[in-house]
Specification:
Helix content: 10-25%
Largest sheet: 10 strands, antiparallel
Distance between the termini: 63 Å
Oligomer: single chain
Number of strands: 10
Structural class: alpha+beta
Order of helices and strands: HHEEEEEEEEEE
Shape: elongated
Length: 174
């Protein structure tokens, strides 16, 4: 009986060592995956055809609010940008009759993209406006599943959103 148990244990460990990857192989596969994802992010940003969806909002005072189930977006297209984002924070100049959130649908200017190839990150900055305020948008993209959007406004305190980046669906995909 002891021989059978010893044989089974030896067989299980032998199979595990035979089929497992070495540490160097796992590291190389992970690096290759990260490079592929970074190339996808760069392609999406260069095309200027993407949308950001927030999952969390963080106020200037550090309060973190879940946005899951709350529709919100920022869209950047070749010439236009539009957004519907909830706002939680202090307003210096009130817009009476407004919805309270950050909302714009306009052209953008001063569009800049900075790539940090070493850290595989991209930073997008541009300016736009709506009827009542000037807005500066800073979007830091770490991967398609991880991005951080910061909105600076002429009338409100800044607010940050953590979420995901995705391509804008084409008409045939909808």
């Amino acid at each position: 009986m002891k021989k059978h148990i010893f044989l089974i244990i030896a067989l299980v460990f032998g199979i595990q060592f035979t089929f497992s990857q070495t540490k160097a192989e796992r590291k190389a596969a992970k690096l290759e995956q990260q490079e592929h994802e970074y190339a996808e992010v760069k392609s999406l940003i260069e095309d200027k055809h993407f949308t950001f969806e927030g999952e969390w909002a963080t106020t200037q005072k550090g309060r973190r609010i879940s946005l899951i189930g709350n529709p919100n977006y920022l869209v950047v297209d070749s010439t236009q940008t539009k957004a519907e984002l909830p706002y939680f924070g202090i307003v210096q100049i009130a817009n009476y009759g407004g919805d309270g959130g950050i909302s714009f649908d306009n052209t953008y200017n001063d569009y800049k993209v900075n790539y940090n190839d070493k850290k595989r990150r991209a930073t997008i900055e541009y300016a736009t406006s709506n009827k009542n305020e000037k807005i500066t948008v800073t979007l830091q993209v770490y991967s398609l599943e991880s991005a951080s959007l910061t909105i600076y406004s002429s009338n409100r305190n800044s607010i940050s959103y953590d979420g995901i980046l995705k391509p804008i669906p084409t008409k045939t995909e909808e």
